[in-house]
């Protein structure tokens, strides 16, 4: 799908991969609605991005998610793309999983993206098509002690994304997924649970640049393949031919 002059919603635009994606889309001539909880960060970013619209929303509050997407649609009169990027991790042993935090992670990483998709689909269908890009994780294909809740949430997102892709093809709404590897953002710092929680956290600073992941997201919007991987190792783990 074309990027220039089209309207995109980026969730989790206040930081990391979402912020880089909002900048990259604007640089390519798109108008970008910036969604996250940190209103001040979104206002600051909006001042740098011509045509953008900051909308403060907690993606685990589904009524607010629907209202936020209505606000975007009302403001621009159309919605061409949705980048479901907001997400958090949770480090804890299976033995110690807190059901309330489990719930929060699945609301944010799985149900939030589903509700956002549900909210944009009617507008996209009426316009004759659209692009939905869900940000997954290489951990969906891994067994990492302490990260079972996070990796399971991303495995669930994988299932919903592939099903939605098949269901929406007839409406020319293309659903793609991105699989970042370790990326140098605030993700490790924003993790819930055990702060020393093992896994890849120690090496986030040495990870891929968020701009690299943003470039994969723009590639997905333009090409519309099902899955994009940050490296060949992840592609092999997923069992997808290169
Ligand atoms: N960094 C990595 O190594 C890595 C690897 C694989 C996949 N990913 C995925 O990449 C995506 C982006 O992560 P990142 O690395 O850019 O991390 P980040 O820098 O921590 O950014 C996360 C974004 O999500 C937003 N967010 C968190 N909770 C939210 C909520 N309840 N409602 C609305 N927005 C919320 C945050 O904004 P507010 O706090 O302002 O709400 C922030 O903008 C996530 O889905 C993550 O799972 C990251």
Structure description:
With 242 residues, this protein is α/β, with parallel strands linked by helices. It has a single domain, classed as Rossmann fold. The chain is built from seven helices and nine strands, in the order E-H-E-H-E-H-E-E-H-E-H-E-E-H-E-H. It has helices at 16-27, 39-48, 62-76, 99-127, 148-168, 210-223, 232-238, and strands at residues 7-11, 31-36, 53-56, 81-84, 90-91, 130-135, 173-179, 192-193, 227-229. The strands form two sheets. It has a seven-stranded parallel beta sheet with strand order 3-2-1-4-6-7-9, sandwiched between helices. Helix 4 packs parallel to helix 5 (148-168). The chain starts with 6 loop residues before the first strand and ends with a helix. The relative contact order is 0.15. The mean pLDDT is 95. NADP nicotinamide-adenine-dinucleotide phosphate binds at residues 12, 14-18, 36-38, 41, 58-60, 85-88, 108, 135, 137, 180, 182-183, 185-187, 190, 204, 207.
